[in-house]
Write a structure and sequence with these properties.
Length: 421
């Protein structure tokens, strides 16, 4: 979501005559696009602001947009007096106002709706991977999650607006579409004629575009994996055989405290259905360790679900208390030391799963998406259908964005391969 927001902010400012620069010292306007999902992310924002305010040139505008802006509100101006603007994730389309009135302080953390999508200009050149938000906010209210406060309640964009965005992306260079939402598979939109559209309809319509070769979505919620969405994995070859479906914990007791689906058997049944319609599909997840009152037995259940599902790529974090969340007020907060030990043990298991899957890919041939050169300039970086990074030697001929690659080696973090001519 932040990648999308950053791209649209840049496109919007270019319409007003600005060009991007990599040097803070040269910039006339400096924008931090922020995430507040963990306390560490918020801390990094203010640390960066402290460095930037000392480095920026006199008269340069400085501000924050996104979830930290929404979380901090007017208090951000108190912490960093040099700030010129603080704009929430639904308000960054107001940035041109600060260009017109640079001497004023602009605060807008309004959560009123989807106005920004109407105000933002269409991209004139899309990257190979186009991120298309289809809904904002979330109604599930997990007790650890700040999203309902920073992004608001769930709102789905009109079906035609989303499809228009995908058509524009296809016409301007995209070959992969990634649908985005805090609860992306909860997308539901009813048009003026009473017709209900769901994520499966967006996928089916997008797959008709000849320019688009790959489709994916993130991040999904287990109970929103409806039968129509599961079935389309078996029907549409452009939909990648990869799904991020966070479970967060393997303990029903902790999941209940998280206000998450606590029926582990139901979660396993979804995975089984997916594999029955798409045998080669692989699952990734998110995990939180050290949630309030998590005991050793709860944690062992998390290790067990990681072993059983064999997630091929996962994000794991120590629980981080966030303001405006119920979990921050719960008793029996777990010590940082215990969290660190548990995270290390979980990461060992997840890394083993990832290494095992990566190794199983050796000798396979996959159609992979070109991402760019590596840091040395001697190799090319591709992305497999399972979102693995694959490194190949740079050839002495021109390549196309999609290449068939034979996997020749693997480790925990990436694959090695050779282009098949």
């Amino acid at each position: 979501m932040n990648v999308y927001d950053g791209q649209r902010i840049a496109a919007m400012l270019e319409k007003h005559g600005l060009v991007q620069t990599d040097n803070v010292e040269d910039a006339d306007i400096i924008i931090l696009n922020t995430c507040a999902v963990r306390a560490k992310a918020t801390d990094k924002v203010y640390s960066a602001l402290g460095r930037i305010r000392r480095a920026k040139k006199d008269g340069a505008l400085l501000g924050i947009v996104g979830c930290v802006a929404r979380e901090s509100g007017a208090d951000a101006f108190k912490r960093i007096p040099e700030l010129n603007f603080v704009l929430g994730p639904q308000s960054y389309h107001k940035l041109p106002e600060i260009l017109k009135n640079p001497d004023t302080k602009l605060l807008n953390i309004d959560m009123s709706g989807l106005e920004k999508f109407d105000e933002l200009p269409q991209m004139t050149k899309s990257p190979l991977v186009a991120y298309i938000p289809i809904q904002e906010g979330c109604n599930h209210c997990c007790t650890y999650c700040i999203v309902p406060y920073t992004r608001g309640r769930e709102l789905s964009r009109p079906f035609k607006d989303v499809i228009n965005d995908t058509i524009n992306a296809a016409k301007t260079g995209a070959i992969e579409i990634c649908f985005l939402g805090q609860n992306v598979n909860g997308y539901k939109y009813t048009d003026e004629k009473g017709k209900l559209y769901k994520l499966s309809d967006l996928i089916r319509e997008t797959a008709k575009l000849p320019e688009i070769h790959r489709i994916r979505f993130t991040s999904s919620y287990p109970t929103e994996m409806s039968d129509d969405l599961i079935e389309i994995f078996g029907q549409e070859p452009k939909l990648l055989p990869f799904l991020n479906m966070p479970i967060q914990s393997g303990s029903p007791r902790i999941l209940k405290k998280m206000n998450r689906p606590d029926d582990i058997d139901a979660y396993k049944a979804i995975v089984k259905k997916l594999k029955s319609v798409r045998p080669n599909i692989q699952i990734s997840s998110d995990f939180i360790v050290g949630f309030p009152d998590e005991n050793d037995e709860d944690f062992e259940q998390t290790l067990q679900i990681a072993r059983e599902i064999k997630y091929i790529n996962s994000y794991s974090f120590k629980y981080s208390p966030r303001p405006h969340t119920a979990a921050a007020l719960m008793g029996n907060q777990i010590s940082e030391q215990i969290k660190s030990v548990r995270l290390q043990r979980l990461d060992l298991q997840l890394n083993e799963n990832q290494r095992e899957f990566n190794t199983s890919c050796i000798e396979q041939e996959m159609v992979c998406l070109f991402e760019g050169n590596d840091k040395t300039g001697k190799h090319l970086v591709f992305r497999t259908p399972y979102m693995q990074q694959c490194i190949v030697d740079k050839p002495d001929y021109e390549i196309t964005p999609l290449q068939k690659i034979k996997i020749t080696d693997a480790n925990k973090s990436c694959l090695r391969g050779e282009i098949i001519k």
